[in-house]
Amino acid sequence: MPEDNAPLIRTDIPHSARIWNYWMGGKDYYEIDRIAGDAGIEVDPDITTMAVQSRQFLIRAVTYLAGEVGIRQFLDIGTGLPTMQNTHQVAQSVAPESKVVYVDNDPLVLTHARALLTSTTPEGVTTYVDSDYHFPEQIIADARNVLNFNQPIAVMFMGVLGHAKSYDDLLRIVNTVLEAVPAGSYLVMWDGSDDSPAYVTLCENYTGTGGTPYVPRPQAQIRAVFDGLELVEPGFTSITQWRAADTEVGEIRPISAYGAVARKV
Protein backbone atom coordinates (compact mmCIF):
# COMPACT_ATOMS: atom_id res chain seq x y z
CA MET A 1 0.00 0.00 0.00
CA PRO A 2 1.33 3.48 -0.78
CA GLU A 3 2.08 5.79 2.11
CA ASP A 4 -0.60 8.34 2.90
CA ASN A 5 1.83 11.17 2.20
CA ALA A 6 3.26 9.66 -0.99
CA PRO A 7 3.16 12.10 -3.92
CA LEU A 8 0.43 11.56 -6.47
CA ILE A 9 1.88 10.60 -9.85
CA ARG A 10 -0.77 10.73 -12.57
CA THR A 11 -0.29 8.11 -15.25
CA ASP A 12 -3.50 8.90 -17.12
CA ILE A 13 -2.49 12.42 -18.21
CA PRO A 14 0.69 13.13 -20.20
CA HIS A 15 3.27 15.25 -18.41
CA SER A 16 5.73 17.59 -20.11
CA ALA A 17 8.75 16.46 -18.05
CA ARG A 18 8.12 12.80 -18.89
CA ILE A 19 7.45 13.54 -22.58
CA TRP A 20 10.66 15.57 -22.71
CA ASN A 21 12.51 12.63 -21.17
CA TYR A 22 11.07 10.40 -23.92
CA TRP A 23 12.16 12.85 -26.64
CA MET A 24 15.66 12.96 -25.15
CA GLY A 25 15.94 9.20 -25.31
CA GLY A 26 15.38 8.59 -21.61
CA LYS A 27 13.41 5.80 -19.95
CA ASP A 28 11.33 7.60 -17.32
CA TYR A 29 7.90 7.97 -18.90
CA TYR A 30 4.58 6.16 -19.11
CA GLU A 31 2.64 4.86 -22.08
CA ILE A 32 0.43 7.96 -22.14
CA ASP A 33 3.61 10.07 -22.43
CA ARG A 34 4.98 7.96 -25.28
CA ILE A 35 1.68 8.30 -27.16
CA ALA A 36 1.68 12.08 -26.65
CA GLY A 37 5.37 12.22 -27.54
CA ASP A 38 4.90 10.32 -30.79
CA ALA A 39 1.96 12.54 -31.68
CA GLY A 40 4.16 15.56 -31.06
CA ILE A 41 6.89 14.20 -33.33
CA GLU A 42 4.36 13.78 -36.12
CA VAL A 43 3.40 17.44 -35.80
CA ASP A 44 6.92 18.79 -35.25
CA PRO A 45 9.74 16.38 -36.21
CA ASP A 46 12.28 18.94 -34.95
CA ILE A 47 11.13 18.49 -31.36
CA THR A 48 13.53 15.62 -30.68
CA THR A 49 16.37 17.77 -32.02
CA MET A 50 15.30 20.56 -29.68
CA ALA A 51 15.26 18.16 -26.73
CA VAL A 52 18.70 16.70 -27.45
CA GLN A 53 20.27 20.04 -28.33
CA SER A 54 18.89 21.68 -25.19
CA ARG A 55 20.99 19.26 -23.15
CA GLN A 56 24.05 20.05 -25.28
CA PHE A 57 23.47 23.75 -24.61
CA LEU A 58 23.27 23.03 -20.86
CA ILE A 59 26.53 21.08 -20.99
CA ARG A 60 28.36 23.85 -22.83
CA ALA A 61 26.95 26.63 -20.63
CA VAL A 62 27.68 24.90 -17.32
CA THR A 63 31.15 23.86 -18.49
CA TYR A 64 31.87 27.46 -19.44
CA LEU A 65 30.61 28.85 -16.12
CA ALA A 66 32.35 26.30 -13.91
CA GLY A 67 35.54 26.31 -15.99
CA GLU A 68 36.26 29.69 -17.54
CA VAL A 69 34.29 31.85 -15.12
CA GLY A 70 34.81 29.92 -11.90
CA ILE A 71 31.17 29.75 -10.78
CA ARG A 72 30.73 27.26 -7.95
CA GLN A 73 27.00 27.64 -7.21
CA PHE A 74 24.13 26.67 -9.51
CA LEU A 75 20.38 27.12 -9.01
CA ASP A 76 18.61 25.03 -11.67
CA ILE A 77 14.91 25.95 -11.58
CA GLY A 78 12.43 23.60 -13.25
CA THR A 79 15.05 20.93 -13.73
CA GLY A 80 12.79 18.17 -15.04
CA LEU A 81 13.60 14.46 -14.99
CA PRO A 82 17.27 13.52 -14.72
CA THR A 83 18.77 11.91 -17.81
CA MET A 84 22.50 12.11 -18.47
CA GLN A 85 25.00 14.92 -17.98
CA ASN A 86 22.82 16.76 -15.49
CA THR A 87 23.88 20.14 -14.12
CA HIS A 88 25.63 18.79 -11.02
CA GLN A 89 27.47 16.12 -13.00
CA VAL A 90 28.79 18.67 -15.49
CA ALA A 91 29.69 21.29 -12.87
CA GLN A 92 31.30 18.84 -10.45
CA SER A 93 33.30 17.18 -13.22
CA VAL A 94 34.96 20.57 -13.72
CA ALA A 95 34.95 21.74 -10.09
CA PRO A 96 34.16 18.94 -7.61
CA GLU A 97 33.32 21.46 -4.87
CA SER A 98 30.39 22.92 -6.83
CA LYS A 99 27.05 23.25 -5.07
CA VAL A 100 23.90 22.60 -7.11
CA VAL A 101 20.32 23.17 -6.02
CA TYR A 102 17.63 21.74 -8.28
CA VAL A 103 14.07 23.05 -8.09
CA ASP A 104 10.97 21.21 -9.28
CA ASN A 105 7.52 20.37 -8.00
CA ASP A 106 6.78 17.28 -10.09
CA PRO A 107 6.32 14.17 -7.88
CA LEU A 108 8.13 11.89 -10.32
CA VAL A 109 11.09 14.27 -10.58
CA LEU A 110 11.35 14.41 -6.79
CA THR A 111 11.17 10.63 -6.54
CA HIS A 112 14.05 10.23 -8.98
CA ALA A 113 15.96 12.98 -7.20
CA ARG A 114 16.46 10.82 -4.13
CA ALA A 115 18.50 8.33 -6.14
CA LEU A 116 20.33 11.00 -8.11
CA LEU A 117 21.63 12.72 -4.98
CA THR A 118 23.96 9.79 -4.36
CA SER A 119 26.07 10.75 -7.37
CA THR A 120 27.32 14.04 -5.94
CA THR A 121 31.05 14.42 -5.27
CA PRO A 122 32.41 14.21 -1.70
CA GLU A 123 33.48 17.87 -1.91
CA GLY A 124 30.31 19.20 -3.49
CA VAL A 125 26.65 19.45 -2.61
CA THR A 126 23.64 18.43 -4.69
CA THR A 127 20.13 18.84 -3.39
CA TYR A 128 16.54 19.36 -4.52
CA VAL A 129 13.94 21.90 -3.48
CA ASP A 130 10.29 20.92 -3.85
CA SER A 131 8.75 24.15 -5.10
CA ASP A 132 6.76 25.70 -7.93
CA TYR A 133 8.70 28.43 -9.74
CA HIS A 134 5.63 30.66 -9.55
CA PHE A 135 6.74 31.18 -5.93
CA PRO A 136 10.31 32.44 -6.36
CA GLU A 137 10.49 33.88 -2.84
CA GLN A 138 10.09 30.36 -1.44
CA ILE A 139 12.77 29.04 -3.80
CA ILE A 140 15.19 31.74 -2.64
CA ALA A 141 14.47 31.05 1.03
CA ASP A 142 15.03 27.30 0.61
CA ALA A 143 18.12 27.74 -1.58
CA ARG A 144 19.74 29.94 1.09
CA ASN A 145 20.07 26.81 3.22
CA VAL A 146 22.69 25.54 0.76
CA LEU A 147 23.91 28.43 -1.39
CA ASN A 148 25.77 31.55 -0.25
CA PHE A 149 23.84 34.48 -1.72
CA ASN A 150 26.82 36.76 -1.09
CA GLN A 151 28.76 34.86 -3.75
CA PRO A 152 27.92 34.55 -7.48
CA ILE A 153 25.25 32.04 -8.45
CA ALA A 154 24.32 30.71 -11.88
CA VAL A 155 20.52 30.84 -12.16
CA MET A 156 19.11 28.45 -14.78
CA PHE A 157 15.71 28.29 -16.49
CA MET A 158 16.12 25.66 -19.17
CA GLY A 159 13.11 25.39 -21.46
CA VAL A 160 10.55 25.75 -18.67
CA LEU A 161 9.28 29.33 -18.69
CA GLY A 162 6.50 28.60 -21.19
CA HIS A 163 4.58 27.24 -18.19
CA ALA A 164 4.45 30.75 -16.68
CA LYS A 165 0.90 32.01 -16.32
CA SER A 166 1.66 35.12 -18.41
CA TYR A 167 4.62 36.96 -19.86
CA ASP A 168 4.48 39.50 -17.04
CA ASP A 169 4.55 36.62 -14.59
CA LEU A 170 7.53 35.13 -16.42
CA LEU A 171 9.45 38.37 -15.99
CA ARG A 172 8.43 38.60 -12.34
CA ILE A 173 9.73 35.11 -11.65
CA VAL A 174 13.11 35.65 -13.31
CA ASN A 175 13.62 39.15 -11.95
CA THR A 176 12.73 38.14 -8.39
CA VAL A 177 15.44 35.47 -8.40
CA LEU A 178 18.00 37.70 -10.10
CA GLU A 179 17.39 40.50 -7.61
CA ALA A 180 18.32 38.09 -4.81
CA VAL A 181 21.70 37.09 -6.25
CA PRO A 182 24.78 39.36 -6.22
CA ALA A 183 26.60 41.05 -9.07
CA GLY A 184 28.79 38.57 -10.89
CA SER A 185 25.98 36.02 -10.97
CA TYR A 186 24.74 34.62 -14.28
CA LEU A 187 21.44 33.83 -15.94
CA VAL A 188 21.29 30.80 -18.26
CA MET A 189 17.99 30.54 -20.08
CA TRP A 190 16.50 29.18 -23.27
CA ASP A 191 13.01 28.56 -24.59
CA GLY A 192 11.21 27.50 -27.73
CA SER A 193 9.75 30.34 -29.79
CA ASP A 194 6.60 30.90 -31.80
CA ASP A 195 8.45 31.37 -35.10
CA SER A 196 7.93 27.65 -35.72
CA PRO A 197 4.25 27.02 -36.60
CA ALA A 198 4.79 23.30 -36.04
CA TYR A 199 6.07 23.89 -32.49
CA VAL A 200 3.14 26.19 -31.74
CA THR A 201 0.72 23.50 -32.94
CA LEU A 202 2.52 20.87 -30.86
CA CYS A 203 2.11 22.99 -27.72
CA GLU A 204 -1.56 23.64 -28.48
CA ASN A 205 -2.18 19.94 -28.97
CA TYR A 206 -0.44 19.15 -25.69
CA THR A 207 -2.70 21.57 -23.85
CA GLY A 208 -5.66 19.75 -25.40
CA THR A 209 -4.56 16.49 -23.75
CA GLY A 210 -5.06 17.97 -20.29
CA GLY A 211 -1.42 18.76 -19.68
CA THR A 212 -0.30 22.03 -18.11
CA PRO A 213 -0.30 24.60 -20.96
CA TYR A 214 3.04 25.55 -22.49
CA VAL A 215 3.10 28.87 -24.36
CA PRO A 216 5.78 29.54 -27.02
CA ARG A 217 6.69 33.23 -27.13
CA PRO A 218 8.24 35.53 -29.74
CA GLN A 219 12.01 35.71 -29.98
CA ALA A 220 11.89 39.33 -28.87
CA GLN A 221 10.15 38.40 -25.62
CA ILE A 222 12.67 35.64 -24.88
CA ARG A 223 15.51 38.06 -25.64
CA ALA A 224 14.00 40.70 -23.33
CA VAL A 225 14.43 38.40 -20.33
CA PHE A 226 18.13 39.28 -20.54
CA ASP A 227 17.57 43.06 -20.50
CA GLY A 228 19.92 44.77 -18.08
CA LEU A 229 22.39 41.89 -18.13
CA GLU A 230 25.72 41.59 -19.93
CA LEU A 231 25.43 38.92 -22.63
CA VAL A 232 28.29 36.46 -23.00
CA GLU A 233 29.50 35.96 -26.57
CA PRO A 234 27.98 34.92 -28.95
CA GLY A 235 24.99 36.59 -27.30
CA PHE A 236 21.37 35.66 -27.81
CA THR A 237 21.12 32.94 -30.45
CA SER A 238 19.68 29.58 -31.40
CA ILE A 239 20.82 27.10 -28.74
CA THR A 240 22.47 24.95 -31.41
CA GLN A 241 24.79 27.85 -32.21
CA TRP A 242 25.82 28.91 -28.69
CA ARG A 243 29.54 28.11 -28.45
CA ALA A 244 29.14 24.98 -30.52
CA ALA A 245 32.39 23.30 -31.57
CA ASP A 246 33.64 24.31 -35.00
CA THR A 247 32.95 20.80 -36.27
CA GLU A 248 29.29 21.11 -35.16
CA VAL A 249 28.38 24.54 -36.50
CA GLY A 250 28.14 23.47 -40.11
CA GLU A 251 26.35 20.24 -39.26
CA ILE A 252 23.65 21.45 -36.86
CA ARG A 253 21.29 24.06 -38.23
CA PRO A 254 19.60 26.73 -36.10
CA ILE A 255 16.28 25.70 -34.57
CA SER A 256 13.39 27.68 -33.07
CA ALA A 257 14.84 27.52 -29.57
CA TYR A 258 16.79 30.53 -28.39
CA GLY A 259 18.79 31.43 -25.36
CA ALA A 260 21.90 32.94 -23.87
CA VAL A 261 24.21 33.18 -20.90
CA ALA A 262 24.38 36.63 -19.32
CA ARG A 263 26.14 38.23 -16.35
CA LYS A 264 24.55 40.41 -13.71
CA VAL A 265 26.61 43.59 -13.41
Largest sheet, strands/sense/barrel: 8 strands, mixed
Dominant shape: globular
According to CATH, what is the topology?
A: Rossmann fold
| Number of β-strand runs | 8
GO molecular function, one term: methyltransferase activity
Keywords: Methyltransferase, Transferase
Protein name: SAM-dependent methyltransferase
Pfam families: Methyltransf_19
How would you explain this protein's 3D organization?
By secondary structure, this protein is α/β, with parallel strands linked by helices. The protein has one domain: Rossmann fold, CATH 3.40.50.150. The protein is built from 10 helices and 8 strands. Strands 1, 2, 3, 4, 5, 6, 7 and 8 form an 8-stranded mixed beta sheet that branches. The longest helix is centred in the first third of the chain and has 23 residues, at 47-69. Residues 1-6 have low confidence and may be disordered.
List the topology elements.
Elements: H1 16-23, H2 31-43, H3 47-69, E1 73-77, H4 87-94, E2 99-104, H5 107-116, E3 125-130, H6 136-143, E4 154-158, H7 167-180, E5 186-192, H8 197-208, H9 219-224, E6 230-231, E7 237-238, H10 246-249, E8 257-263
Parallel strand pairs: 1-2, 1-4, 2-3, 4-5
Antiparallel strand pairs: 5-8, 6-8, 7-8
Helix pairs in contact: 1-2, 2-8, 3-4, 6-7
